[in-house]
Design a protein that fits this description.
The protein is an alpha/beta fold. It has helices at residues 58-65, 83-91, 109-119, 124-137, 153-164, 183-198, 210-216, 234-241, 257-260, 284-292, 309-317, and strands at residues 2-3, 18-29, 32-43, 47-51, 73-78, 94-97, 171-175, 202-207, 219-224, 227-232, 245-250, 269-273, 276-281, 301-306. One of its GO terms (molecular function) is ATP binding.
């Protein structure tokens, strides 16, 4: 499956240039196939997401794009260059936010940005000005002279993003940028990333948070077992692979399978999870009334909601992201 989607269009009506291009890309470690023949095109100014559970091949794909690992087979071009031969030139034009922060915790917030900027050959004056600009952008200007170690996880992630932007990268790679953060910290980080997206920064991000993908991605691929199982915008994927609404039904039991049987005629599709039954329907409120008269006992709760990317993933892989 080719993850091309609709072409991004620039202000002059022309297709935006492709910054990451891959065809049949594979990465094999011994007998293990981590990435199995994927295609992708990421255009300038696009926010492109790779969605999937742990072990799906997301981080390996990011390592290939980031020129940390060479593909075993296939064609890959990043910024028009071949990662096998032009890795240093490509890396100089990328910004990378890894899964785990690699900050120097004994330095101050500002010093972390200054030291990193010097790696790219920026002058002291230029990197000082850039550090002030970036720390203001990630809302850490008031902590510029604080040592990093005692900062919260959300602050450290924002500092890592500031550091990754110091060289004005052509592409910003973010590998599960909000994993481990509390909901408030995640939303602050989303706001910063959304601002980058609005300013035209090209983002490539991996995540296993469905709401994050819906918030940030113009287009995404769902990845499982090293392969793509679907691609498109979040709205396209939901429209293509799910119903308009979902009714979540919970009973006071540890085994919902017996309770699901009488509900099956009420829905287009039924998924039974350990703690609930999901009914895929066009009108969840109307279905809720029917559920009350269909089962052997009254449900503990009924939750009507819109379909989400999590429903798409469950449909495509037969399991939830937390499996």
């Amino acid at each position: 499956m080719t993850a091309t989607g609709d072409e991004a269009i620039d202000g002059d009506g022309d297709a935006a240039p492709v910054l990451v291009h891959g065809r049949g890309v594979r990465k094999v470690y011994g007998d293990f196939v981590a990435v199995d023949g994927i295609d992708l095109d990421v255009r300038r100014g696009e926010s492109f997401g790779i969605l999937g559970p742990n072990g799906a091949g997301k981080s390996t794909t990011m390592r290939l794009i980031g020129c940390v690992s060479d593909p075993t087979d296939g064609e890959l071009r990043v910024l028009g260059l071949d990662p096998r031969h032009d890795g240093p030139r490509i890396r100089a034009r990328l910004g990378v936010v890894p899964q785990r922060d690699t900050l120097d915790e004994e330095l101050t917030v500002r010093e972390n940005v200054l030291v990193y900027g010097r790696y790219f050959g920026l002058s002291r004056a230029a990197v000082r000005a850039k550090a002030d600009e970036l720390l203001d952008f990630v809302q850490l200007a008031d902590r510029a002279d604080s040592v990093v170690e005692p900062l919260s996880g959300g602050m450290k992630r924002r500092l890592t993003i500031a550091r990754a932007l110091v060289n004005d990268p052509d592409v910003l790679l973010l590998d599960e940028p909000t994993t481990g953060l509390d909901p408030q910290a995640r939303h602050v980080l989303w706001d910063r990333l959304y601002r980058l997206k609005r300013e035209g920064v090209t983002l490539v991000l991996t995540t296993h948070y469905m709401d994050e993908a819906e918030q940030l991605c113009d287009r995404l691929v769902v990845m499982d077992g090293g392969r793509y199982v679907a691609e498109g915008s979040p709205q396209e994927l939901i429209r293509r692979h799910s119903t308009r609404e979902v009714l979540e039904v919970r009973y006071r039991t540890d085994d919902h399978e017996p309770y699901a049987q009488p509900l099956r005629p009420l829905a287009e599709r039924v998924e039974v999870l350990p703690d609930r039954v999901l009914l895929y329907v066009d009108d969840a409120d109307a279905t809720a009334s029917a559920v009350l008269g269909a089962g052997p006992e009254r449900p503990m709760s009924l939750l009507p909601r819109r379909s989400s990317l999590e429903d798409v993933f469950l449909r495509l892989t037969g399991r939830t992201l937390v499996d």
